[in-house]
Amino acid sequence: MGWKEDRIVKLDSLFEGLRDWLLGQYDQHSGGFYYARSSRDNALFTPDIESTAQGLNILERHQLLEVMPHSIKQHMIHFFQEKQNKQSGYFYDLNSAMKLDEVMVHRALAYSIRSLKKLGATYLYPLPMALHVAPTYTKSIDSYKKKWDSIDLHNSWRGCDLLASSTVYMSQMDEEKRERYVQAFADYLANIQDKETGLWGEGSLYVKISGTFKLHTFYRRFQIPMPNQSAIYESIKKCLLHEEAVDMCYIRNPIDLLSYLSIDIEEKDLQMISEITIDNMARLKQSDGGFQRELIHSPKAPNVAQVKEGEYYPDMPEPAQLGLGLVEGDMNATTQATLIRMQLHRLLQKPSKKVIDEKEFWMQF
To answer: Which residues fall within 8 angstroms of residue 297, CB to CB, at 6 or more apart?
Structure first.
């Protein structure tokens, strides 16, 4: 076996136990997924939008969605549809803290629309732009720019998340208007990018790469090449070699960026990138079969986990608690692990073998 085959064997071995963990996160009553074991086993928590969308992503990435039984598909469709508020068009969880977090609200909107589409369905009511209840900054490019200028980037990860999530409304615009707004944001980002590093904002390399990853979701969604790609690539390599990945996001974000950059990766770099990535993933694999978001534990409230202990960001929202903060697999990390696996198979140009048998899985669901 060559080094690529060795890497794939080690990578795929990390997904042992995933089937049983995923089965255990599903709630047959609501049709949704819980965030973690401690969420499922505690009456304080219910399945939430993000965890359910992430669970659906895991099913899709392991070729399980295409053979999902009709009754389960309808149950999941109902889960997302009933989360939509008829008056505003937004999708909300029961957790009241979720509604107060701008990023969570925007993410729930995007997650729900995409998840319903994957399930062959759609939302029941008009979306916020059609109902004229979207934020006032969406009314003009100038007001959007004022919004972007108001966002603090001294923690790149959180700041760029706010920047990127503000563009969720652009997909709801007519084509001519959307093109103008998309170009305006692309121009804005080009002006504030650090040309030397290719990154945006401030913080450690992992924090800045994570912020850059958040902005890449805008570029990817609208199929726009990222500027200064060679500089981004060099920053990723430097980060992997010199900083510790204490969060699954720090492992996923560089790999997802690499998958979108138009860069020819030399074999020695590919060896280094794949080895470090897989070793870092192994540190977050848990005995319950899932992956844990942080090295020390699964964060209680992933909506505030971007700003680590000792760091500061102004006006952080109230934690929207989804679990008990135990040492355990969680949906946030596990969906990222499945994406990393998929991207690594592509980067290594090795076909992805099934690690979950679909017939056996759905028989036990």
So the answer is: 325, 326, 327, 328
d(C-alpha 44, C-alpha 322), whole Å = 9
Q: What φ, ψ does residue 161 adopt, rounded to 5°?
A: -65, -40
Tokens of 94: 């029961």
Which token pair is 3?
């080094």
The residues of the chain scoring below 50 in pLDDT are none
pLDDT at site 74: 98
Per the document, the length of the chain is 365
- Residue 39: which residues within 8 A CB-CB, separation 6 or more? 45, 51, 322, 323, 324
Rg (alpha carbons) of the chain, rounded to whole number: 20
pTM score of the predicted model: 0.96
Cα–Cα separations (whole angstroms), residue 239 to 84, 136, 275, 310: 40, 38, 14, 20
HSE (side-chain half, CA atoms, 13 Å) at 304: 20
The gap from C-alpha 60 to its chain's centroid, in whole angstroms, comes to 14
pLDDT at 365 (0 to 100) = 87
d(CA 144, CA 297): 37
Per DSSP, the residues of 201-229 read SSSSHHHHHHHHHHHHHHHHHTT-PPSSH
pLDDT score at 1: 77
Please list the residues that pair with 36 across neighbouring strands: 330
Backbone angles phi, psi at 359, to 5 degrees: -65, -45
As given in the structure block, the two tokens for residue 278 are 């897989």
pLDDT, tens only, 64-96: 999 999 999 999 999 999 999 999 999 999 999
Strands of the chain (E only): list them.
26-27, 32-33
Spatial distance between the Cα atoms of 223 and 218, rounded to a whole number of angstroms:
8
What is the spatial distance between Cα 91 and Cα 180, in angstroms, rounded to a whole number?
27
Q: Which class for 72: exposed (0-12), middle (13-18), buried (19 or more C-beta within 10 A)?
A: middle
